[in-house]
Design brief:
The chain has a domain of about 50 residues. The chain is built from three helices and no strands. By secondary structure, the chain is mostly helical. Helix 2 packs across helix 3. The longest helix has about 35 residues. The radius of gyration is 32 Å and the shape is rod-shaped.
C-alpha cells in the first residue's frame, strides 16, 4: 500500500513539475510576460504624462491670445509689420 501511494504521489509530482516548466503558460512565460507588462506600464505612464502636458498647452493656447501670439513668434518665427526678425543661433 505504501509503495502504491508513494508511486502515485511521485507521478503527481512529476506531472506537476512537467506542466510547470514545459507546457503552455509555464513559469518562463509568466516571467517574460511580467517583465513585458512592467515595460508597457512604464511606457503608458510616460505617454500619459506627455498627453497631460500637451492638453495643458492646448488649453493655454486656446484660452489666451497672448499665449498664441508668443507661441507663433517663438516657434514659427512670425513677426509684425513694423518688427525686424533676428534669429540667434546657439552653439
Amino acid at each position: 500500500m505504501k509503495k502504491i501511494l508513494f508511486i502515485s504521489g511521485l507521478f503527481v509530482l512529476i506531472n506537476l513539475n512537467y506542466s510547470l516548466f514545459f507546457k503552455n503558460n509555464n513559469i518562463f512565460d509568466f516571467l517574460f510576460l511580467n517583465s513585458e507588462n512592467n515595460l508597457l506600464i512604464n511606457k503608458i505612464e510616460t505617454l500619459e504624462k506627455k498627453n497631460n502636458d500637451l492638453s495643458i498647452k492646448i488649453k493655454e493656447l486656446s484660452s489666451s491670445s497672448h499665449a498664441l501670439e508668443n507661441f507663433a513668434r517663438y516657434n514659427l518665427g512670425l513677426v509684425k509689420n513694423d518688427e525686424t526678425f533676428v534669429h540667434v543661433i546657439k552653439k
